Structure formats: structure tokens, C-alpha cells
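I hope you will forgive my troubling you with a question about protein structure. The matter concerns a single protein, recorded as an amino acid sequence and a row of C-alpha cells. Please examine both parts with care and let me know of anything in them that strikes you as inconsistent. Thank you for your consideration; the sequence and its C-alpha cells are set out here:
***
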Amino acid sequence: MDGSRFGLVVAAAVFASGLLGLALQRVLPERLTTGPASEMIGAVVGLLSLLSALVLGLLIWTAYGVYAEQNAAIQTLAAKVLQLDLALADYGPDAQAGRALLRQDLAKTIDEIWRRPESDKAFVAGNFAEALANLRRRQAYLDQLVAATDAERAALFAAQQAVEGIAQSRLQMSFALSNPVSWPLVYTVVAWAVALFCGFGLKSRMSAMAAVALACGALAVASAAHMIVDLSSPYSGMFRASAAPLEQVLGYMGQGQGAVGAHR
């Protein structure tokens, strides 16, 4: 049984149990069963409040997990890029072209991810394709290096490990951006919020203060929805993953390669 059918079965069972309770009023004493309709509305509103609070909090936490995971992956990527640059520097002058290529690729990555607007699937697919292209390009460069000494072999091995780490970080960043939140679940929570505020309206009298309270509540729900969408898209919007670790490494690589060029 799929989720839609199961949900319909649950709705039918819950509704039937409510009708059964209404029918039992004719059997049980009136003092045990009968109450104003407002009590039923209040009970349903309480249920919707509980469900909305729980699932909305879960969605915000899930979206924040995407945001935090991207920041952690960026820091790992920066560390691996720095390790690769140091390994190529240890290899010697023959690897200076590789260091220049690495610096160029890092600058291009920062520009493509942080200085280009994100466009949903196109952004994710482009990020994934670029990660694979960078992996093949760096691997091809390392394959053409021929280590002649133990120091060069050790540096080349370290460079191979760093390239694998860079590829893993880039691919993890790309995979995490594919369907970061469940949109059917978001729509369900929005429907609960709409029904909940309808119940609030039924329980209150029309007044200016009631309208202001409803507006404040609606803004609170809207801010939570905005937070979910924004955190699940960490390269656009208000909550943006920081490129500072990569920019710091890029600046260091520029200084180091500049010093090597001046020395030579």
C-alpha cells in the first residue's frame, strides 16, 4: 500500500471513529457525552497545533542540517585543496604548472558557486559535472608526473590522496543539494497551518485585535517556511554558506606561488 492510500485509510478510520462517538451519545447518559461544539473545535485545534509544531520543527532542523553539512564540506574541501597544493610544492619545480592549474580551478569554483545565481536542478547538475571534470583533469595531470626520488614519490602519493578527498567533498556537496527537503511534507504542514488558523478564527470573535493576532501568527508561520526554503538552498538567499575557507586558501596559494615565481 502506497502512502496516499494509507493516508486515505487513516483519514477514513479516524472520521469513522468520530462518527461512532457521535452515535454513542444516544446510548450513554447525556451528562457523560454531550458538550458544546466549541469543545470539539478546540480539541481539533489543539491536535493541529501539536502536529504543526512537531513537523515544522523537524523540517527546520532538516533544512539546517543541509546548511550545516554544506559549511562542513566547504571547510573540508578547503583543507584538501591546501594539502594538494603543499604536496605539489613538495614535489618540486616540475609540479608548478599543477599548482597554477589548481589555483585557477579553485578561483573558478568560487566564481561558479557563489557569484552565479542558483537555478535549482541546473545548478546542482552543473556543480556535479564540474566536480567530475575537475577530478579527471587533476588525475590526468598527476598521471603524467614521473617521480624520480623517494621524496617525489611521497609527495605524489600525498597529492593522489588529496585529489580523492577533494573529489569526495565536491560530490558530497552536490549530492546534498538534490531534494534537500520533502516538498509534499512542506505542503502538508502548510495545509495544517491553514486549517489551524481557520479553527482559531472559529474560536474567536471578530475584532481588530484578533485580526492583528492572526496577522502576527501568519507572519511567524511564513518566517518558518522562508527559513526552510532558504536553509535548504545554502548558496542563495539570506542564509548563505560561507566561501571564506576557500578564499583564504586561494589567497595563501597566490602568495606562495608568487613567492616561488619571484625566487625563480
Observations:
- Confidence is low (pLDDT under 50) at residues 259-264.
- The CA atoms of residues 184 and 234 lie 20 Å apart.
- The radius of gyration is 29 Å.
